[in-house]
């Protein structure tokens, strides 16, 4: 074990949890755990759905790598618990995590800061859905404000689909967003520390980059470098840093972006604890800079702090 890795101490890799993204979190966490152990880090699995979070302090852990996704892991709650316990952790703090998990309030901050994001409306049971369609056009996207991994997201193509799309999202979250559909190339912009990593371009099947295609098929093609104009790529990377910083994020993260045919672009959301599976995008971007998955995990862990 290197001296630097020894100084990282006993590490809890938080995985699983109780969100709708538990399955993906377990895959991410196991990959991170294996990577850290391969580099000589004294890392151990810790599932907050199995053991109470305060057991981290009882078990003598010195820091935590958060590989939890979704609610109770990416929304500031576990970050607050770790702050109270005095255990430094990876990624963004309480405020930035909570803000980034809420796609509505993320949009409010981005719009105020000049970060481009698609037009949207908040839906309630009383909303005139026909009026929203008239304003945003079809197709449009309906999604819960505080879920990830495309859970509860519907691409609405006809007015008849709108009510069911709202009902699905509303089951998961009382805050539901209708968002204009932005046609273009799907990109992700990862941030590591103060650096914007190379963009990844995603080519998904006709049904789109949904939950199944994100994690469980090999139908999606990834391109890194993204193969777009260098000046456009640079502009998106700089905007990604801005999008990251105005939310108060730190450590690492990943923004999802759509690049239109005319060269303009729109940011969809910020992920503060991105996936670390075999299909994941931050490792792909890091690899393009010559950084291995194992070194990326150690780098993220070494940045652990209090929010």
TrEMBL record:
Q: Which family does it belong to?
A: Belongs to the D-alanine--D-alanine ligase family.
Its catalytic activity? Answer: 2 D-alanine + ATP = D-alanyl-D-alanine + ADP + phosphate + H(+)
What is the official name of this protein in its record? D-alanine--D-alanine ligase
Q: Quick one: which gene encodes this? A: ddl
Q: Any idea where the ATP-grasp domain is?
A: 107-302
- Give the protein's cofactors: Mn(2+); Mg(2+)
Chief localization: cytoplasm
Name the SUPFAM superfamilies on file.
Glutathione synthetase ATP-binding domain-like, PreATP-grasp domain
**Key words of the record:** ATP-binding, Cell shape, Cell wall biogenesis/degradation, Cytoplasm, Ligase, Nucleotide-binding, Peptidoglycan synthesis
Q: Name one Pfam family in it.
A: Dala_Dala_lig_N
Its organism's taxonomic lineage begins at: Bacteria, Pseudomonadati, Pseudomonadota, Betaproteobacteria, Rhodocyclales
Q: Which organism is it from?
A: Uliginosibacterium silvisoli
Q: Quick one: signal sequence residues? A: none
The kind of enzyme this is, by top-level EC class, is ligase
């Amino acid at each position: 074990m290197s001296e630097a890795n020894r100084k990282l101490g006993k590490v809890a890799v938080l995985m699983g949890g109780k969100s709708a993204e538990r399955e993906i979190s377990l895959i991410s966490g196991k990959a991170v755990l294996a990577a850290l152990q391969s580099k000589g880090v004294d890392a151990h699995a810790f599932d907050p759905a199995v053991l109470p979070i305060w057991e981290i302090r009882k078990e003598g852990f010195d820091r935590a790598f958060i590989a939890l996704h979704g609610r109770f892991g990416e929304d500031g709650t576990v970050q607050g618990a770790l702050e109270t316990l005095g255990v430094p952790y990876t990624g963004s703090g309480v405020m930035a995590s909570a803000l980034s998990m809420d796609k509505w309030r993320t949009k409010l901050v981005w719009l105020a800061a000049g970060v481009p994001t698609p037009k949207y409306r908040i839906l309630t049971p009383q909303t005139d859905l026909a009026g929203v369609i008239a304003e945003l056009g079809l197709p449009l996207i309906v999604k819960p404000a505080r879920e990830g991994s495309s859970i509860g997201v519907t691409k609405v193509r006809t007015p008849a689909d709108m009510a069911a799309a709202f009902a699905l999202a509303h089951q998961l979250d009382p805050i539901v967003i209708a968002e204009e559909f932005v046609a273009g190339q799907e990109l992700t912009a990862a941030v590591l520390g103060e650096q914007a990593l190379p963009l990844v371009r995603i080519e998904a099947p006709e049904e789109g980059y949904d939950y199944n295609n994100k994690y469980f098929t090999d139908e999606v093609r990834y391109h890194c470098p993204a193969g777009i104009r260098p000046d456009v790529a640079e502009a998106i990377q700089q905007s990604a840093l801005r999008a990251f910083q105005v939310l108060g994020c730190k450590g690492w993260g990943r923004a999802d972006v759509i690049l239109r045919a005319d060269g303009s672009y729109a940011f969809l959301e910020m992920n503060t604890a991105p996936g670390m599976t075999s299909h994941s995008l931050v490792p792909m971007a890091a690899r393009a800079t010559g950084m291995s998955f194992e070194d990326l995990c150690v780098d993220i862990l070494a940045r652990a702090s209090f929010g």
